[in-house]
Amino acid sequence: MSYNVPFFYGKKGICIIWPATVPGGGIRKGVLLGFWYGNKLTDIDNYLTHGTNKKIFYKIYHAPEEINSRAIIKLLKEAIKIDGMK
Asked: What is the pLDDT of residues 69-81, one digit of tens each?
């Protein structure tokens, strides 16, 4: 936990879950799922948003129905694999 939000680490950062209710996350509504090294992910489903940050790619959810667990699991597995290479 950092800034009252969960950060997930391996050797380096893997992902973060940041609700809009916590100040400092840069989002006004929803919950952000961000990948620290999203720029290194294949993301063949084009699931993540490539914002202004060059490394962190993310998805913002406004309703539980928007969550695509298959896409997230693929991304998490790839992010963990990339993290293991460092």
From this structure: 999 999 999 999 9
- The token pair that represents 49 in the structure block: 């948003």
> Which two three-digit tokens encode residue 68?
């695509």
**pTM of this structure:** 0.87
Structure tokens at 83: 């993290």
Question: Quick one: CA torsion of 18, 70, 46, 37, rounded to 10 degrees?
Answer: 50
Alpha helices in 1-86, H assignment, sequence order? 69-84
Cα separation, 24 vs 28, whole angstroms: 10
Map residue 34 onto helix, strand or coil: strand
Contacts of 57 (CB under 8 A, 6+ apart): 34, 35, 38, 39, 41, 43, 48, 49, 50, 51
